[in-house]
Structure formats: structure tokens, C-alpha cells
UniProtKB/TrEMBL annotation:
PANTHER family: ENERGY-COUPLING FACTOR TRANSPORTER ATP-BINDING PROTEIN ECFA1 (PTHR43553:SF24), HEAVY METAL TRANSPORTER (PTHR43553). It comes from uncultured Synechococcales cyanobacterium. This is Iron(III)-transport ATP-binding protein sfuC. GO terms for molecular function: ATP binding; ATP hydrolysis activity; ATPase-coupled transmembrane transporter activity. Keywords: ATP-binding, Nucleotide-binding, Transport. It comes from the Bacteria.
Length: 231
């Protein structure tokens, strides 16, 4: 269970806090979805949970244990927005082994299997993969470290409809073994697989019933509400 208690991020340079008294609970084998417009603090929240940004106040717990940034770096696997822009390996194998030369072939195969890329020759260049395959590879890079918590920043951004569907199906499958926290400005297909939902607006997080969002998303397009544009 991930548990955030009154988490605040307020760098000295900004007039108001970027994250304001965030409270959040996410159980194992759940997908949590944070929906918020650009600049609302989504990526900052994930960076904090990945141990890359130190909270100004508040606490982060995993079960009963309060976590430091070092714990968080071990516990979490963060997939950045457009992860393919950060690939540095010349091949799929190199990409997976970056920083982990000790990894055995078996672990590498398992991670690729997990994301449906087991059929790829390991010498394939990451640049030559399709957009959806690149996202899968970026996920495998994190899964290979066996994190408890997968953090995904706009995982479906820039993918076409069919690749989005494939990725959403994959995330639903990964839920069997991991807790996932996904942030997005456009819930879209991700709504279908979310167990918990929150809106984030100017750093304020509010819980919202995913069933309510799903019902509203199914309303005709001329309805005044759209799940993709929650404010
Ligand atoms: N270290 C920092 N110092 C000052 N301001 C920051 C810092 N980090 C983030 N911000 C500001 O905090 C706000 C939230 O940024 P963040 O990148 O988390 O938003 P976001 O919801 O991920 O937006 P997008 O959807 O565009 O990716 C922005 O106004 C950003 O400029
Ligand atoms: Mg962002």
C-alpha cells in the first residue's frame, strides 16, 4: 500500500506551492489515475514518488514504513513522458542492460516477455521499433529492476488509437504484479482500467469515483462534460 500524507512541494522560487497537501492511497495490484491539465503538477508528483524531488513537507509510506528518497528510488520505476527520447542503448539488449551489466539472459527475456516483446531480436536498434514497441521497451527497462510501484507519465501520449489500446491492455495485465500510478491530461482509454482516480488542479488532488467518470465519458459528445477535459 502506497500512502501519501499531507505532501507539499513548494520550492523557494515559486510564490505558491506546486503540490498542496496531497493525500493519496493506492493498494497493491491497483491502477491509480491522476488526471490534470498542463502545469497542474502531475510530473512533479511522479518525480517526488520516484525519489528525484524532495517534498517540502509531508510523508510517504509503503505499508507502515516511512520512505526516504533512497527508498523511493529503489521502490519505484518511473517511465517518463516520451521515454523513447531518452533511449541511449544501441540495441534492445544494451538499453535493458544500461546500469545493470549483471543482468542474466533469463531476467532480460522475462522482462521482454512481460511487455510482449519476447520475439524481438536483442540486437534490434530501439530507434527502429514502432512507437508502441518503444513504449513497451521503456516499460521493460523499469520492470527489469523489479520495482514495487510503476509510475507512468502520459503513457499513451502521441500513440495512435490501436497502439493506445495495446498499451492500455498491457498496463491492465501488469496490474496483476505491480501497483501502477499513471498521470495524464487526457484520461481517454485509461479510464477503463483505473481502480482509483483523482483530479489534480493547481497542485490540489481530489479523489473522484472512476465509475462516475466512466459514466460521464460515455455521455454523447455534445454533453457539457468530457472526461478528457476535467478541471
Ligand atoms: N523545481 C521547480 N521550480 C519551480 N517551478 C517548478 C519546478 N518544477 C515544476 N515547476 C512548475 O510546477 C508546475 C507543475 O509542473 P509539472 O511539470 O509537474 O506539471 P504537469 O502537470 O506535469 O504539466 P504537463 O501536463 O504540461 O506535463 C509548473 O508550473 C512548473 O513550471
Ligand atoms: Mg508533465
Amino acid at each position: 500500500m502506497l500512502y501519501l500524507k499531507n505532501l507539499v512541494y513548494h520550492p523557494a522560487a515559486t510564490p505558491t506551492a506546486i503540490l498542496k497537501q496531497i493525500n493519496l492511497e493506492l493498494a497493491p495490484q491497483q491502477i491509480g489515475l491522476v488526471i490534470g491539465p498542463s502545469g497542474s503538477g502531475k510530473s512533479t508528483l511522479l518525480e517526488m514518488l520516484a525519489g528525484l524531488v524532495e517534498p517540502t513537507a509531508g510523508q510517504i509510506f509503503w505499508r507502515e514504513q516511512e520512505l526516504t528518497d533512497v527508498h523511493l528510488q529503489q521502490l519505484s520505476g518511473l517511465v517518463f513522458q516520451f521515454p523513447e527520447r531518452h533511449f541511449c542503448g544501441g540495441s534492445v539488449l544494451e538499453e535493458l542492460r544500461l546500469g545493470h551489466p549483471e543482468l542474466k539472459a533469463e531476467q532480460i527475456n522475462r522482462a521482454l516477455q512481460e511487455v510482449g516483446l519476447a520475439h524481438l531480436p536483442l540486437h534490434t536498434s530501439p530507434e527502429s521499433l514502432s512507437g508502441g514497441q518503444q513504449r513497451r521497451l521503456a516499460l521493460a527497462v523499469q520492470l527489469i529492476r523489479q520495482p514495487y510501484l510503476l509510475l507512468l507519465d502520459e503513457p499513451t501520449a502521441g500513440l495512435d488509437w490501436s497502439m493506445r489500446r495495446q498499451l492500455v491492455n498491457l498496463l491492465a495485465k501488469l496490474k496483476a504484479d505491480w501497483s501502477l500510478l499513471v498521470v495524464t491530461h487526457d484520461a481517454g482509454e485509461l479510464l477503463a482500467i483505473a481502480d482509483r482516480c483523482w483530479t489534480l488542479d493547481h497542485g490540489k488532488l481530489q479523489s473522484i469515483d472512476p465509475n462516475l467518470l466512466r459514466a460521464k465519458a460515455e455521455q454523447p459528445p455534445d454533453s457539457s462534460f468530457s472526461a478528457g477535459s476535467i478541471r
